[in-house]
Specification:
The protein is α+β, with helices and mostly antiparallel strands. It contains four helices and six strands. It folds into three domains: 4-108, no CATH class; 120-175, no CATH class; 180-208, no CATH class. A hairpin with a 3-residue loop joins strand 1 (9-12) and strand 2.
Length: 208
Amino acid sequence: GVDWAQTQAVYSPAGGIRLNVQGREPQGILTPAAADRLRGDLIAALTALINPATAAAPLLQVLPREDLYNGPFLSLAPDLILEPRRADPDPRRNTTCSPAFGPHCFGDSGELTGNHTLDGIFLAAGPDIAPGRLTGSHLLDLAPTILHALAAPVPDDLEGQILPLWASPRPILRAGPEEEERLAAASSPFTPAEEAAVAGRLRSLGYL
C-alpha cells in the first residue's frame, strides 16, 4: 500500500501526477503553498530529465492542468499532465527510471507494448459529406460535429468547432442555458436497477 503520510505526489501512467494536498485529498500532507512549490520543482526536474539509453528527453511536455482544462471540474484533473516522447512505437524503449527503483523498471516490464498519441485519424462518409481532405481538426471538435450531424442542438458553451464536412450548408441548432437545463433534467433512459448495475460495474473497475 501507499504510506500517504510520507507521500507528496502520486503518478499514474494514465492519469498524470496528482499532489497529496491537505483539504483536497483524504490524507493530504501538503499545504497549498507547498504544493505550488512542489509542482514547480517537478516541472523543472521532469523537463530536464534525459533517458541515458537514447540521450533524449523522454518527455515532450510537462503541463499544469490549467494549461489544458478549465471549467467546474478542473479539480478532478491531475495537477501535472505528462506527454511522453514516442520516438519508438514500443513504449518500453521510451521510458527511463531512477536506479532507486532497482532492477525492475516499469519501462522494462514487457507488459505495455502500445500507447496513445495526440495524432489521430478522422474519417467521414455519406451522401451529404463533401469529398476532400480535412486539416486542423481537434478531438474537441467531435462532440459539436456529431451533434450537428444528428440535427441536435449544440450547446453554446461547448468547446470545439463544427467541422466543415458537408457538401451544402446545414442550419446549426444552438442550445442556450435553458435548453441545456431541460436536457439535463430529462429522465434517464435506464431504470434505477440498470443504473445501479452500471454504477456497480464501474465501481468494480475502479472508475467510481
